[in-house]
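Quick illustration, no need to memorize.
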Amino acid sequence: MDKLATAWAIFQGLLLEAVPFLLLGVAIAGLARWAVPPGAWIERLPKNPVLAPIIGALMGFALPACECGNVPVAHRLLASGAPMGTAFGFLFAAPVLNPIVLASTWAAFPDQPWLLVARPLGAFLLAILLSLLLVQLPETQLLATALLEERRISQPLSNLGLLQRSSGVIGGSPSPPRSMNGSRLKAWQVLDQSCREFLDLLALLVLGCVIAALVQTWLPRSWLLAVGGAPTASILALMLLAVVVSVCSSVDAFLALGFAAQITPGALLAFLLLGPVVDLKLAGLFTVLMRPRAILITAIGASLGVLLIGQWINLWLL
């Protein structure tokens, strides 16, 4: 019973921490959908494979939310036809490159200036790496089926044939109401879409929080911190800890402050970099964006990238 009580407490903590940011992300996505007609600014985004993720990553400064709030915004970008590199650059960088997370990192570690530079720089490089990796896949193998259909609807006919638009043409499933001529949607249409989007994402978030709470209960963090002094093992252990605890990026620096003295600098940075990109809480949310193969590539790519960054920091500071 004690284990179940602990799991229930962890589940509540994770859910209460994430829901406000999820609601904020859905609200921002809905507001953007209502205020900015599709195509008005999407077409101005760069399509260059290198420049697109850079612009996407820099867009993270405009959204003060953790990784949960970025998923609906990235979903809206992809559905509106934005370059995939831009959307994925935003998805992976914004959880760190936003004012709240940068301020919380500075508040938790004011005496470690290297971390205040290394964390946003590492998140930026990681987002570019993952975006370049994912855009190598065809859209049909990268994007979730429903998102792919919605994205194709937003493409101009000069870029995509009618038969490729499975929704609303020949045997396709009905699409949610949307503007087809670049005009502004009605407020009730945006509110209806946003409510359904929030409920869909909330169900996936609850599932992710349940998994994270159960794993965290039966895998105590003290086991992972026991190898804190070994350069490589400490990085691997803290990467696993970041995935398991699934804490939001807006508060993870304060959690790390509790054990920072027990681990290597590279392990500390690895914990702060990997969690905002890959954790158990995000497992369900990512399914609205990507197919399982793309999620697996994201997890492996992010892990290898963070491991290399952590090793380099240990070589530099130890």
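The longest helix spans residues 2-35.
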